[in-house]
Amino acid sequence: MQKNYDGHISKNIKALYLKRLAGPLLYLIFSAVLWSLLPVASVLFPKNLSHISDMGSLYQKKDVFVSADLKNLRFTGYTKTQFNRTAGYFYYMENPDKNECCIVLLSPSTCEEGLPEIETLTVRGKIMAADANYDALLKNLSSDLLWTESGIRTKVNPFYLSEPDSRYGLGIFLFVLLAASSLAALAATLSFILFILRPDFAPPCQRLRHFGRPKELLLAAEEELATLPQLATEDMFITEHFFIETSKYGIAIVPIQEIIWIYKHSTLHKLFWYHFSISYTLHITANKHVHIQCPKNTKSDIDGIIDYLSEANHDILVGFNEKNRRIIHKH
């Protein structure tokens, strides 16, 4: 029974890019989750922390990178150590409007390694939730003040501002990486949708622009394939004027008169020391530096394609050797 090849090339182009569409779509969903969970945008666009007590609300909105004008900072006497070095100095400042204290961790250079008091300071920092260092600070402060730990927590903001933790270099790198990859995924998604809707815009068809108008050549190849291919394997076809491939590895359409070199290349597949199969790849070089590979085929299928093409166009060079390579290199 003769197989129906009506619209066969376009159907395979649509199927190929519909399959490829899943990857960028999944990444777009993944990146959207990252954008919502990570404070990436806050790195480049830090909010102005007008009131130090607003740290909690900004933290909930993921606006954790801020700039702030601080006043009347006093050294607590405690530092944060990291890798056996002093990473920061804990200061506190009072907020009489809310009857609470707010903690600020300053870099050693900013506070000149522990100035007792700082009247005014403009700093860029990161809003941090209570962590092990913060809990240890409150525990020690409660002991110094002869308070209970639960009592001091009612007077101190549960969030603190950390200057050493505002690693803008890493944050900017992550922002650029995530933004670039998201844009690439979006571009791929839109492109694949376009190729599904308009197969003549897909790369396999646009490669035909070297030889004429892609849409017209696609229609001509579809018509010849639908009428009756002169030679057909599982995923390679020869019509009166075209070589056509429609495999899961890619789609290719080449006018036979433009082909200048064909050869096959064998690949030995093995698992550890056991050789279990050999596959063959058909290589086709056409004018305008067009090169096509048709992988994972049988030797008999490729030999049949090569014999037919060489008979259809006697100018085609057959076989891989140094003489043919030099001729094509000069072409």
**Structural class by secondary-structure content:** alpha+beta
Oligomer: single chain
Radius of gyration: 34 Å
Strand content: 25-35%
Q: Biggest β-sheet: count, sense, barrel?
A: 5 strands, mixed, barrel
Tell me the helix content. 25-40%
Uncertain runs with pLDDT below 50, 5 residues or more?
none
Strand tally is 14
**Spatial strand sequence of the major β-sheet:** 2-3-4-6-5
Shape: elongated
Distance between the termini: 43 Å
In DSSP terms (H or I, runs of 4 or more residues), the helix count works out at: 11
The overall average pLDDT, rounded, is: 88
Q: What is the element string, with H for helices and E for strands?
A: HHHEHEEEEHHEHHHEEEEEEEHEH
Structure description:
This protein has 331 residues and is α+β, with helices and mostly antiparallel strands. The protein is 39% helix and 34% strand. The chain contains eleven helices and 14 strands. The protein has helices at 8-20, 22-37, 40-44, 55-60, 132-144, 149-153, 168-197, 203-206, 214-227, 299-312, 322-330; strands at 47-49, 65-82, 85-95, 100-106, 117-129, 156-162, 231-232, 236-238, 242-247, 250-255, 259-271, 274-286, 290-297, 317-318. The protein has a five-stranded mixed beta barrel. A four-stranded antiparallel sheet has the order 7-8-9-10, sandwiched between helices. It starts with 7 loop residues before the first helix and ends with a helix.
